[in-house]
Here is the input.
Amino acid sequence: MSSMDKIVSLCKRRGFLFQSSEIYGGLNGFWDYGPLGVELKRNVKEAWWQDMVSRHNELLQPKGAPSTYEMVGLDCTIIMHPQVWKCSGHYDLFHDYMVDCRESKKRYRYDQVRGRWVEAKGKKVFITALVEAEQEDATLQQRALKFFNLRGKDADSLIWDGPATSLADIKEFENVLAPDAKELGTLTTPREFNLMFKTIVGALGSDDDAAFLRPETAQGIFVNFKNVLDSSRVAIPFGICQVGKSFRNEITPRNFTFRSREFEQMELEFFCHPETSRAWYEYWRNRRFDWYLKHGLAAERLRLREHAAEEIAHYSCGTADIEYAFPFLPTGDYGELEGIAHRADFDLRSHMEGKLVKNAEGQLVVEQGSDGKPKHRGSGRDMSYRNEVSNERFIPHVIEPSAGADRATLAFLCEAFKEDQAPDENGNMQTRTVLQLHPRFAPFKAAVFPLVKKDGMPEVAMELYGALKQKFPVFYDEKGAVGRRYRRQDEVGTPYCITVDGQSVSDKTVTIRDRDSLEQVRLKIDDVVAEISRRIES
Ligand code: GAP
Here is the structure.
């Protein structure tokens, strides 16, 4: 079993994640968080919110920041005025390319189908598969053998040409064997597919009532920029944060929750003066990278990738992705956790003037329709900012660190998953499964066990459990051997297990066992709440 298979299986078995609508066969690209998963993801989002908004001190200049700044929050609707998506560019441009298979009637994202050229019996074909990286080679070989009507022992007669590559690198599909086809050349040419989910607002149901589920939370922030400015005392530089659901009709959702159709984002739009925007971009890029390191992602599996000039939007002076080497990816590949983009004044101007495009001179101008009028008209509202001291008026530049709550949760889960050796209840070394989650993220911060269900131990344990529960989620367990109870907690990432034994009843002390070091210390019961709080915070 690969480590990813073990993680997926643990998630289901211990109630972190379930396939949505599983009893009806599931719905591809949708996931439900179980009792432990909901706590884990809430903790990730809460840590982000605390670090970005509620614990931010606007009076102090954080290390590396160009100046002090303010941070506020927002919670906007999922369905917004359709014009929002026309001006943001999502209506015209937010699409992927897909191909349809005429034989299997399946639809694939063009760039996600991978395959390899292979020759046998005088014919060369591009065999494809849509599988996890670890299974790619074996699946391609199996499909090639089947296609050429060869047996396993004939594998040497297959002549492979070059490594596996994306279908997007192939020009003609005539000799392509689609992932679920038996015949060659069944794929259509690539077509655009808008990723926004469409819905109807109101009872009439005509096309005029069409609306979209937001594909990002960011636009709610841009369209409320003036409301926030006018209703709070914030002054530039300041940031507006939002955490919430986003929806994308991904053609091929895959890799567990990594690419889902319904997911949560944690986005900041940081508004600053154009002259300082580069410095703010660098600040946020580094600060966000450090956030993942601080919360346990290993430096050797995390990287900050600055986009090359040709990848960056023309109006921007920088974009970087924070990427993680997820275990389901081929060795050396990374998946995006968060993007940090310098968006200049593109969004505020679009919502003010209308959808922008680049003209022949490389300047952003309002896109014209065939009638010479703006293709998608903006709100006409003034989105500029006036500095009350200098009286300078300008359209702020925006730095956007945009993170996925589900991807971050998945990365923390993958990183935390370990199998090590630990003594069982008889002192014999055994393989144990442990989630070494950062204590801030652990669904339960502690578990309380009476050693046995008699001699006054349960009463002491229950009292301690009640006191701890006032502060954070705690688990109470009196069933089975204590060693097995430790294992059950290790597997779900509980950092501290507190055992009430015979000595506890007489001298009011308990032992605290550390999940990672396995070290046990004895402590006064009265000090336990403070000690666990201290350890979680540190
Ligand atoms: N406002 C900018 C924006 O939405 P993005 O790179 O498209 O940028 C930001 O998305 C983050 O949202 C990604 O880095 C990723 O963590 C998360 N995300 C995007 N699409 C996702 C999907 N289909 N499933 C899960 N998370 C996704």
About this structure: The pocket of glycyl-adenosine-5'-phosphate is lined by residues 216, 218, 248, 250, 259-260, 263, 265, 267, 336-339, 400, 402-404, 406-407 (CB under 6 Å). Residues 513 and 520 are 4 Å apart (CA to CA). The chain has 14 helices and 29 strands. The chain has a mean pLDDT of 94.
